[in-house]
Structure formats: C-alpha cells, structure tokens
Amino acid sequence: MELNHRNLYRLPWNYADNIITWLEPTKTCNIYCEGCYSANRPNAHKTLKQIEQDLDVFGKYRNTHAVSIAGGEPLCHPQITEVVKMTAERGYKPIVNTNGYSMTEDLMRKLKDAGMVGLTFHIDSLQTRNGWKNKNEIELNELRLHYAKMAAKVGGLSCAFNSTVYGDTLKYVPELLKWAQDNIDIVHVMVFIAFRGGTPPEFNCFVKGKKMDVKEFVYGDDKGQRTNITSREMVKEIKKAHSNFSPCAYLNGTEDPSALKWLLTLRLGNKNKILGYMGPKFIELAQMAYHFLFSKYLGYMHPKVHRRVKRMFPLAIFDKGLWKTFKKWFFYVVKNPVRLFKSLHMQSIMMIQPVDFCSDGRQSMCDGCPDMTVHDGKLVWSCRLEEQLKYNSFFTSFPKEGKVPCGNKTN
Predict the structure, then answer these.
(1) Overall average pLDDT of the 360-369 stretch
(2) Which of 154, 141, 144, 142 is nearest to 120 (CA)?
(3) Given pLDDT bands bounded at 50, 70 and 90, which one contains residue 402?
(4) pLDDT, tens digit, 9 for 90 and up, residues 118-166
(5) What's the Cα-to-Cα distance from 297 to each of 95, 98, 266, 279, 287, rounded to whole Å?
(6) pLDDT above 50 for 405
(7) Residue 407 confidence (pLDDT)
(8) Mean pLDDT throughout 170-177?
(9) pLDDT tens, 62-87?
(10) Rounded to whole angstroms, how far apart are CA atoms 75 and 405?
(11) Position 199 confidence tier, pLDDT thresholds 50, 70, 90
C-alpha cells in the first residue's frame, strides 16, 4: 500500500525546539562529492571565537539535544577537538558528520574524550576517494564496515552512515539495508538522502529582486542526475526486497503537508532476522516523554539503548507495531529457547527528501528542519547556506511565462 502521512506520527520538531542543530566550523573539504551542497573553500576555517558566537545563537534561538558538527569536512578544522569540547561544554551532544577520509582510531578516541557521542559517516559512490574510484555502493560496504568496526572498538559511540541516492544508485538501497542488518550490532543508523540539484528550466530565479543564474551555486546544476527522487520512491524500492518495511514517523514540507521530507523507520531484530517495526505511538511516546522529563526532544541514543529492545516490550500495550514484534519474538524464542538470552537491536532508518519546487515556484523545504545552522546571527537552512554567504538572502523562483510546470513537481 502507498504510504499515507496521516497513518504516521508527525514528528514534533520545529524551528525553535528541535532534536539537532547544525554547526559548520569549516567550509574546507578533502574530497569531492557529486551531491554536496557546499562549495569547497581552502582554509576556510572559523575561529574558536566565531564558533563560540554560533553556539551563542543556538542557545538564544534553539532548544536542542544534539549538535551535528559538519561542514565542509569538520576533521579539516585544525582545532576540531576543541570545537567538540566547546559544544559538549554547552550541554549539547556532539555528533561529528564526516566523510571519514582523515579519521583514525587515535583521533576518534581524542574526539570521544573531548565529548563526542556519535559519528555520521557520509559514504557514497559519487565521491572522489583514493583507492575507491569506480566502486559501487555494495563494494563500498567494505569501507563502511571499516569505520563501523573502528567506532565499535573505541566504544560507546553511536555509529551512523548516510548516502546520497541518485537515479542509478536507487537500486542499491535495499542491499544497503541488508548490509546494515548484517551489522545491526554496530551500525545504529542508516540515512538515505535524495539527490537535489539545479532549478527546473521552467522557472526564473531572483534574489533581492534581481534575476540570477542558480548555476553559480555548487547545487545549481543537476550534473546529469535525476532531481525528483522521493522518500516514497525509496520505500517502494525497499519493499521489493523487504516487504514488511514499515516507517512510523515523518516531517512534512513547508508547502506540502503530505510530503515525507524526513521519513523515520525503527526496526527491531538481529543479524539473522528483522522481527518487526516500531509503530507511530512508540515514537510519539518516546519524544513526548523525553521532552516532558528533560524539556528537549530526543535526538541521540547511546548504543546500549539500541541493544536493550526487550526492555521496551512493556510499551507494546500502547503501540501496535511493538505488539506485533513482541508476538513474533515470543514464538521465535519458543522455537529455540536459547534465543531468550540473545540480544535484540533497534536500528533507525531515515530518508530525507530535500527541496521540492511547487508549480507556482514556491520551494517546499523540510518543515521543522533539524539541520538549521547559523549565518549572520540568524538560523538558516544549512543545505542552502551558499545563498546566504553570497547574497545574505535566499533566492526565490517563479514560473516562466507560457511554461507548463513538469508533472513531477509538487503542486
């Protein structure tokens, strides 16, 4: 059945109260990614004073649980350990978003000692990595496993992977989920980000009233790639191999309430079997209870929580998905009682669908976006930061006269 957003839990995150906020200490990177939205600027590192000011803006405008330290490539910053420490000292949970190219076990331990609680590694086949050229998404699992094992060895760190999904890599998403299941004990989160780039040719774009060419931005060109992949399409592809795949929560679009901009799935199982999926009521209870107790929405879970699924079974009285999972687990154990003593794990699967163009030119962003960052003392979308850096404004788009919008655009 096609996903209906009304059957899912609309995540409660908003502009001022959110699970995550996005810190960019540098705009410098050490590799090239086809789907990146950030221009690479050599030696474009913020000073610790500037980073402190960004954190001040977070504290002024944003109630948040965790901070994603990204960029650029954050490990390029010469004082990245101090950046992590500063973030942790503010009471935030620092998550380092990295391509991993410069990561070593020694550096990972230093970052953990500074307060880092988790890592998100961005790895996909349209990156320029020495030794990995022309490798497809499945072949790159060897590299993913290298980092997952490193994080597990250091211990106590949430380990996530994200990958940009292109038209010709969409087919690999189900196999990546199978790989994640095979390593469910050390891989806690998988994120798939639909590629976006360029502006549909039937629109003109303006900034501060003046016509502009979006190709001056790194994300202003489609680079020959599809730019209309949706979360629903990714789920459809996944269900070909994982028929029971069942998302539970979402964020909608700013201009489209039915859009699945952030689509969350929580699955439960082990390396041999996925026993079930959390339902909407579980994630609602988790978010509301955490906010009630700590005045923040839950944005980070320690790895030990991911492997204590059986302790959550009493909550099955509230959640149909968890109840179905409990019944499957019960009969799974009856068939082989030894399984009673085996760990079950929870694994998060997230799909992100960036900006969509409406037929009248409106740009539908993620409503309640967790990845807001700072520019000029205000919160802005990190995926469109380049516009702020160049013009101190976002561009707007309008249909060209006599042009009929493409059928795959949001209405």
Answers:
(1) 95
(2) 144
(3) low
(4) 999 999 999 999 999 889 999 999 999 999 999 999 999 999 999 999 9
(5) 16, 24, 17, 18, 6
(6) no
(7) 37
(8) 97
(9) 999 999 999 999 999 999 999 999 99
(10) 42
(11) confident
Which structure tokens are listed for 304? Answer: 């030990």
The first and second tokens of residue 406, run together, are 């493409």
